[in-house]
């Protein structure tokens, strides 16, 4: 009899365990891709921090989708800001059957990787700014920030009309991001009646620009547009000062970091400009509160797009709740129709996946920090 009671107890425990499993959280895998090593790691880690902060909050609150509690898990991958590595990362995320991909950061990585996600039917939310990303026509692709066409338009107009630059030279790093933004800047300069005196190119690994700058000096540039990242723009600023070139550097969002000022070494960073998709964090709907949470958790300042990556997690969660499903094919339509007020702004997308609200902020370095110049 004792034996029967023991057996019944064991069965009861097993049934309880089984019930526990059936009631366990549904795991939602958030694929993540950005550079986590190398000279662009500070961007990628900032992006990952934004995702982590949102995931921790949602898991603490408890999210229910279709009557089932879900648990969000990040599947982070280091794409090294390299297109070849990026496609390998994309295939790895597809093979792991992630529910969505948050990333990538670089346009050169995002564009080829997006085809793999589209073929697998996995939604992707990226901050890649090259227009070609969404011109491919993939229905699963979304952009979280404004594209280069608008960013370049704002920068080119500012260089000609506000800075009154007569001699403008362009240097780009030949990446999809750097070259794409430089192309749009050149179009905008010409559309506003300006002229590009010279155009040169380098690579995203270069740090010695002496030869290029020496040849450019003869053009007496007032503006030098650089399409590329802070790790190259900073030494360029130092070398310009050493050569007596007084041109203002202008660039995109990848210049807008404390690292640019740090690497430039103080004074050489002064007076240069960058443009960033989105409002200044202090002017974002939930920017100040987000900034405080971010600093409290990670003991560092926001680098660039952490707020948008944070919002991307909430966007996905909201779409899943509206669709009553965590399956990509089922929540994708809800994502397309979303209208969500996040910390960085209100998100809704047009038919191509472009954000409908995408302001641009121009910043300038003044007294060792990036200050807002104008919001367009």
UniProtKB/TrEMBL annotation:
Domain of life: Bacteria
Keywords of the record: Amino-acid transport, Signal, Transport
Residues of the signal peptide: 1-24
Residue ranges annotated for the Leucine-binding protein domain, each copy included: 28-368
CDD domains associated with the record: PBP1_ABC_LIVBP-like
Pfam families membership: Peripla_BP_6 (PF13458)
InterPro entries membership: Leu-bd, Leu_Ile_Val-bd, Peripla_BP_I
This protein's record includes keyword Nuclease: no
The UniProt record lists the keyword Transcription: no
Family per similarity comment: Belongs to the leucine-binding protein family.
Protein name: Branched-chain amino acid ABC transporter substrate-binding protein
